[in-house]
Design a protein that fits this description.
With 96 residues, the chain is an alpha+beta fold. It has two helices and four strands. The termini are close together.
């Protein structure tokens, strides 16, 4: 099993319900593609070091997961790039 950490920033204009839906949607993308989520952490709203897509802050989330192949990671990356709700994401492979 490969271990990954995904950090993404959701746009700050989302309501509380919309934030929950975004996190649930992207968690479901991972689990539907045979990844096992080991930890999810809501880091709250933080200021950005520089503006991204005209936003000065965003809601930070970190997901730690395990997967047998890159299918879940590739799908998360594809949909994360196309989503208007996520302004930036970073996928990191964790070495044992």
């Amino acid at each position: 099993m490969r271990k990954y950490e995904i950090m993404f920033i959701a746009r700050p204009t989302l309501s509380e319900e919309e934030k929950k839906n975004v996190v649930a949607k992207f968690s479901k993308i991972l689990t539907d593609n045979n990844a096992t989520i080991t930890n999810e952490k809501d880091m709250g709203q933080r200021e950005l070091a520089y503006e991204i897509k005209d936003f000065k802050s965003g809601f930070y989330y970190v997901i730690t997961l395990e997967a047998n192949d890159d299918k879940a990671i590739n799908e998360f990356d594809r949909q994360g790039r196309n989503s208007s709700d996520i302004i930036r994401h970073l996928i990191t492979k964790i070495e044992d």
